[in-house]
Design brief:
single chain; about 375 residues; alpha/beta; Helix Hairpins; Heat Shock Protein 90; 13 helices; globular; HATPase_C_sf; Sig_transdc_resp-reg_receiver; kinase; EC 2.7.13.3
Length: about 375
């Protein structure tokens, strides 16, 4: 237990060093445009790494308690792979690793949870990037295995490979080939265990192959193709926010409640850039004072706040004497990320539950989907 906590502390602290270091340098020194861009990319990459470590821990907790829930719909694996590739792009570019994608014809759709499927591919790609040396090569191949009516995703790298002794344990929880303090590669040893669990939850299989140490590795995932999900189910799906629409929230009045001043400023800048009219509140009490005079079209609230939390605040708004206030669409924007937290937020009357950190585009998209509904 002590050893695991020591490793966990190390892995959570490691991304903070480049984040805080570059942030301090950007505040105190002048850099040219190229160096500034590199600094910001480093901060973003390490922040995403820390977020993923936390998400992995939460996912393992859900898995061990049998609380993992899938949101099933027809899924195009091409889109899943594209999304996962975008997530690892910065990390691959930082090491000069080339990622080649091969789509072997029309594969078809599978029934699954798009977010969890992307998590599977992301973990495989992230693993490949981590263990592939600078200037290496990764290939992602999507194909169909017609004999068994399965879709197949392969991630092949030119990395350090896997020894025959460790290969049987590569998908075990908290297992790493090198667990010493002198190890070259970080991580908690959770990513591949999560890959196996999520793959099997989708009725699929995953296997790892490697000729040996220093000879790279290939991970192969098989998912059953859907027999009743036609492509038309996806063809009609388009983004509510068009790239040609610079101010998708123009004339939209939004009340934002969060006790963290940095978070309030970030949300304000995000929504202001999208054309919204915003009122900020630092507490539930301040939000209630603003509410009737401002008459917002939408309400965004943190959950964990001093004295009165987001649930109690929404309860008071829903019980307001003003009909307009009672029916305001509401988004919970919170660091409470579990599925039970999401269910509680929806049961409390929030229309959407978004987890911090949230991508600006995701927040705007969520607002648009509610105000245009």
């Amino acid at each position: 237990k002590d050893e695991f906590l020591a490793v966990l502390s190390h892995e959570l602290r490691s991304p903070l060093n480049p984040i805080l270091g570059w942030a301090k340098l950007l505040q105190t020194r002048q850099f040219d445009q190229s160096a500034t861009k590199r600094a910001l990319e480093t901060i973003e990459r390490n922040a995403k790494l820390q977020t993923q470590l936390i998400d992995d821990l939460l996912d393992v907790s859900r898995i061990l308690r049998g609380k993992m829930i899938l949101d099933i719909s027809p899924v195009d694996l091409v889109n899943v792979i594209d999304g996962a590739l975008e997530t690892v792009r910065l990390a691959a570019e930082a090491k000069g690793i080339e990622i080649q994608t091969v789509i072997a014809g029309e594969v078809g759709l599978i029934s699954g949870d798009a977010g969890r499927l992307q998590q599977i591919v992301w973990n495989l790609l992230s693993n490949a990037v981590k263990f592939t040396p600078n200037g290496g090569h990764i290939e992602v191949r999507l194909s169909s295995v017609h004999k068994i009516n399965y879709a197949q995703i392969q991630v092949k790298d030119t990395g350090k490979g896997i020894t025959p002794e460790f290969l049987p344990y590569v998908f075990d929880y908290f297992r790493q080939e090198d667990g010493t303090t002198t190890r070259k590669f970080g991580g908690l040893g959770l990513g591949l265990a999560i890959v196996r669990y999520l793959t099997e939850l989708h009725g699929g299989t995953v296997k790892a192959e490697s000729p040996g140490e220093g000879l790279g590795a290939t991970f192969t995932v098989l998912f059953p193709l859907s027999t009743n999900a036609g492509r038309t189910a996806l063809d009609g799906m388009t983004s509510l926010v068009s790239a040609a629409e610079p101010f998708p929230l123009a004339k939209t009045r939004i009340l934002v409640v969060d006790d963290d001043p940095d978070m309030r400023e970030l949300i304000f800048m995000t929504l202001d850039q999208a054309g919204a009219q915003i009122q900020l509140a630092s507490s539930a009490f301040e939000a209630l004072d603003i509410l009737e005079a401002f008459q917002p079209d939408l309400f965004i609230s943190d959950i964990g706040m001093p004295e009165k939390d987001g649930y109690e605040l929404l309860r008071q708004i829903r019980n307001s004497s003003s009909a307009g206030c009672r029916e305001i669409p509401a988004i919970a924007l919170t660091a409470y990320a579990g599925e039970l937290n999401q269910q509680r937020a929806l049961a409390a009357g929030f229309q959407k539950h978004l987890t911090k950190p949230v991508e600006p585009e995701e927040l705007v998209q969520a607002i648009v989907s509610l105000v245009r509904a």
